[in-house]
Specification:
heterodimer; A: two-stranded antiparallel sheet; disordered N terminus; B: 1190 residues; five-stranded mixed sheet; 20 helices; globular
Amino acid sequence: MACLIAVLTSCSDFLKEVSQDEFEPKTVTAYQELLNGVGYGTTTTFDPITEVLTDDVEGCQGASYYYNETNLAHLAVYSWQPDMYQSLADHKMTKLLESYQTFYKRIMTCNLVIEGLDDAEGTEEEKRQTMGEALALRAHYFFYLVNMYAMPYNTPETTPDALPGVPLVKAAEIKDEGISRSSVAQVYAQICQDIEEACRLLDGNKALPVGVFRINYVAAHLLASRVYLYMENWDKVIEHVNLALAGAPALCDLNSYQLSNMDYPTQANNHFISKDFPEVIFINGGARANGIVTEGTLIRVSDDLLDLYDATNDWRRSMFFQANSYMYYKNWMAKYGRSEQEYVWRTAELYLNRAEAYAAKYAAGEAAYGQKAAEDLNALRQNRLKNFTPYTLTTAEDLMNFCHNERRLELCFEHHRWFDLRRYGMPSIRHAWIDNTGVRSIYTLQKKDPGYALPIPQSALDLNVSLVQNQLSPKRVAEIE
Amino acid sequence: MLCFLAMFVFVSGLTAQEKGKKITMKCVNEKLTDALKKVEKQSSYKIVFSYNELQAIRVNTSIEDLTAPAAVKKLIVGQPISCSVDGLYIHVFLKKEKKDPSLKGLLSGRVVDENDEPLPGVSVRLKNSPSIGTLTDLNGRFFLSAKEGQSAMLTFSFIGKKTVEKMAGEGLGVQVTLEEMVNAVDEVVVTGYQVMDKRLMASATSIVHMDDIKMPIVNSVDKMLQGTIPGLMIQNSSGSPNATPRIRMRGSSTIYGNASPLWVVDGIIYEDPIDLSNDELNNVLQGTSSDMLEQANLNATRSLLGNAIAGVNPNDIETITFLKDASATAIYGTRAANGVIVVTTKKGKIGKPTINFSASWGGTARPRYSQYNLMNSKERIGISKEVADKGYLYSSMPYDTGFEGALFALYNKEITKDEFDKRVAYYETINTDWFSLLCQNALNQDYSASISGGGTNVNYYTSIGYNDSKGTMKGDNSKSYSLRTNITAKLTKDISITSQLNLSEQNSEGFYTTNPYLYAMNTSRAIGKDEFYTTKVNTILGLFSNYPLTYNIFNELSHTGNEAKSRGFRGSLGINANLLKGLKMDALLGIRYTNSLNYQWADERSYYIAEIRGYDYGSVLPNSKEESKSRLPHGGILNYSQTNNVSYTGRVQLSYTKVFGRQQQHVINAMAGYEVSSNQYDGISDVEWGYYPDRGMNISYEYDTNTSGNVSDQSGSNSSLEKHTISRKNVKNNLLSSYATFVYALKNRYIFNANLRGDASNRFGQYTNHKFLPVWSLSGRWKINDEALFREWRTIDDFSVRLSYGQQGNLPTSVGPNLIAQYMSPTVNRFSGNFQLDIKRLPYPNLRWEKTATTNLGLDFSLFNGRVSGTVDYYIRKGKDLIFSLPVASEYGTTQTYRNGADMKNTGIEVGVNIVPIRTKDVTWSITPIYSKNTNNISNTSKKSYTYNDYLAGNAYENGKPVNALYAWEFTGLDHNTGRATFKNCSFTESEVEKSDDPKSYLKYCGSTDPKFNGGLSTSLRYKNFTLYAQFAYAFGQVKRLNFLFSGSNTMPETQTNLTTDFLDCWRKPGDEEFTNIPGFAFQETTGYNIYVPVSNVVLLNTYDMYNYSDARVVSADFFRCRNLSLTYVVPEKWLRSLRIAGMSCTFNTTNLFTLCSSRLNGQDPEIDSTGSVALPITRNYSFSINLSF
């Protein structure tokens, strides 16, 4: 037997594992490339539906053939139905249902990278960078998950540790048993731990250029500021914004910024959600193929939102929304231009996050912060308005409202509004629907409605016996106006 | 005593007129020979006899007025003499059963091999007294004393040599030459590594001769094996000539790995021509792909390219050996856990050149409506009318087709009632016969010619073959060509070489994106054959019109195609050398090269392309806005793939045989070898949009500025990038192996075998810690009837028991313990510009080899001079640590994981018996029944819960249940008020349903889809020159689901869909539930077709879907099929002599003559595996063939 083995092992070349197209990753570079390919998601839609849940859209009358299956399937989402996924699945729009699983797939990749890096070959700098990116991404995905499928961190009359969050998967090991939901507090604790560690690692790599498609230290701090904003940890928000702004690109002055196609912003190559927009810190996701779109369907941009803009002075009104000759979708949401990416993290958010933190502190009685909030808001508005008139500080309430409105105006259709509505106390929303005969009916999302947490997909529940569904609202019935 | 018979022939020249002359004579104690001469003189006959034979016999008789034959008969009455009359000749001879002349005293002789070398250790026995015997000494000599009255006929037998019977003489006696047993296939087992004397083997093997199972015209040997081998289960996947059957030997030993046996041809392992991973393979074979069309396309590709054995002409095959237990397969190592099928091709035989030619022509009858319970057009329109009359709602506006089209035209006042009636009358009577239009009575041909022969030093066999098989679907064809040359040459006394060369080509045609059989089954007969009817109304985003898409099957068939070409070159060279006495070296180098090409295409006139394009061909103007918005404005799609498979095997082995001990009673045979094999797949596949098959096969590249760079934008346009995707695959598997076998035989009575093999492979990321797993086996055989006690029992020729035990490993290739990354296409992320990788396989760090332990207890017997012989085997195959997939929480980033741990136990009994009730000169009748029973149980799967869908889909591996367990909803009749199906544990009232986490509590176990026992029966009856052969196959104890009654779950059947006649008897009014089990149409209610179910996290399910998955739609799939019935006539030689033909035979053959099965199957084949009707039915086939030899 021994000689048998000896003969067998002598021909090591013959037994060398060779494959043209697959291999076992052993270097930091390989792990980084795995992250590039399947950790990030340049072609993946993470959040295809939340825009349709907000008050930024409304129903409209379409021509008869617009009442087709695809567009009608949107109604279930638009009307916050508890069985919205079923309706989408019935219409074979399954791509819209995969967010939950998509996030966890990406998290699996992050976990594999985080674990594999320990033994991988590469320089310390490379390792730091890849580890930082993987941790930041994991934090980002859990942040998305907990905000889509659980009630908000600041849900009134309760504490986050009493709210079911999402299952926390922190290792690449696959177990047979199901995995139950951690509390919202636990999920946020993990997110904070990951993002803080990512910030620390990436701060050490400030000099390394990685481009806007990967997370650098600025992006990590931006994400941290957003997480703390949702947690209402105002000091941390300010701290991270300050660190991020040190390396972030300057705000882009729309008074001088030229879209590549000013007449048809939808055809512009350098619109807000594009890698060529000067304010971009990080860009990712692939929205255009798979999301519910507001263009060309029975859902359009709401007058509620459009009316908020200063129609004569705000560059954003004409750049974000393109008037269209067809009556039933008079305004296209043009923010994507011709880009295919889903979302960007950009400098404006840093100002808005910090302004809100200042405003909150101002409301809490720290008077010095009021002016600081106004300064941040004005810094942004100066770059957005034609004839800029600075906001002047009045009451704390007015300041906070102004913050919220400015945030809505600036970040609309960038997957912020739904989450913002949640942390603003989950107000009631009314959605009108107009059928093909012109009858208008109204669906209502109540204040603090359980519909503010999306249902967990049945396919996930089927596979995980420990998973408990959110409390679902009853089926919503439209009232005819 | 050696008899030299001197033949005296007395010839008198008499004329024919004198033939009737009568004879009168008297003999008193006269010599018979003299009497016969007298008779001859008096008659015109010539009497032929042997003087020596008859001289001792004297006769007393008187003959009066008899003809010559009668006179001869009277003369020999009471004598041990026979006579026969042949024209003018009367032969007189001693009766055959004459006793061997007896002899007493010392018998002696010498035994040598073909090279005149003395053979020691040869067993010499008196034929009629086997207890008396001896072995030859070192000089090959033997001495044996015999008593008076005992026959001097001796039997000489030696391992690996043909057994010889010879009369012995005194003194120096006889010189016997024992020849190498090359062609005496009954006595040897070809393991692929060795040719072993069957008497030295203690393994479970079966051998079948190609001549015994040959079916004319069938183009591949794997389709001929059903019901011929105990323990072998063949499931025919389709009746198409391109179909590849599913083969299992002794059940499945793995859940996730490849469960097909290994094919070995003349010592070389044959790999599949294309590299399909196990899961792909299993999916394809089991039809688990969810998308029916995708499945059909996959099947088409897979079938068109064939399996490992495709390309080997069945006419070239001599024998097939099936290695079944661990003892037999251990030598193949890890790859042989599912059994090995060893094919031996024909070799040249010593003698003058023989030319063989065979030609077969056959016809296959097409399927007809009478075989299925499908509605005719009147019945189908009747259903539509009924639905319309009852006011049921259509979920969407019916298209302008058929009855519904006319109805809505009437509603919309586009036509008058008169016109409407006319149209309906037209549809009612049109009754299009799709089967007649799409199918054909196929004519198939097969020709094969070979020349073989040889001298003392060189043997050769060379053949060419051509086969043209057509399926019953027009356009389902397969043509194959083959050329084979086998040469054996003896270079010196001690060295011989064998070389083989095989070229083959197979060209197949099938279907792409459409399946005419499925179409004929599913399409309403109220549609005209030339009709282009609307099946879909399309909208194009950004444009404000509707685009109806129309379909016509003939248009579709003529504008799509699926062609596969597979070319194979295989060659091998072997050297056998006798190094020293008893020590032999064998070296073998084999190379295989297979090139497989597959083109699948659809051009721009096809519906398939119209669906992608968005509008019908020719319905918009060139350069119109539709063209600019379309994803594929010009051309069709070409889907091209090519795989080159290069594999080589090199092997060197030494074997040593020694015979020693008192009376040379010990035989040792030891063999050790070393093998290197490599198997490489190098393939490319390409999808090209813009293909113009009819315009020089050009591809029109369209770089659309609007969409270039987009994966797909809102209008669904694919980017220029995605319209032309090419990918390359390159996989190389290297394997280094060592193996050894050891045989010890004591007195040819106690046999002991041991086998050992170890493999090391370069398999990627696979089991680095467990690279080397030895496979071993031990076995023993006891020839009981050789014991002194039984030697006198002459009725027993052989009675041996065998026992073997062995361990094997199996190695699923698609999962492993390490993370495997894969280069992505595109290599560089087109947004970020960064290099990117994909995850090919998640790590499953705890995976180990699957282990299989096989115990086999066997019995071989042969009674009454071989009149009754057979084999019985009982086996237990325990699979341990089997890898199984486990659905896991999707939070782990995947939906399934893999675990070692399942245990699978296959126990079975196999019986193969051969009975020859009659064996005379003119009549031989033999019967060969075969029975196999396999029980398959899974245990320890450690999975606690499966979803109800797992159970219904057959994915639940439940402890103690078979692998392919089938569960169903328990149907409890139709609801009195609504006619909806009801099920046990379900209710229309939510509160009545008790929720359960365990689907077993509300689903019913209906049995296994694998047969409990199966087998066959073949019988052959020869009368003179006629041979009638029949072969049957059966399988019992399995169930299967009927095709879905109705697959549209919540919409009315579309106009173009046909329904089964079951619906004629469907529920219509309360009370009907007493008479029918077919649910009624109840589509007026939007959700009323649902029922509350006990599934823990599901509220309502659709009763129609549930009905399809209910026990009402599960039937027994037992069947008894007449696989083959043939009548052969061998033309008598004397007729042929003048034509210089050495032999000629004609055969009329019918395959699949009849199938007995449950009537509830309604034309659905009990055997075809997949639920649904993608596979073509197995149909009757008639053929006629002629064999000629010169």
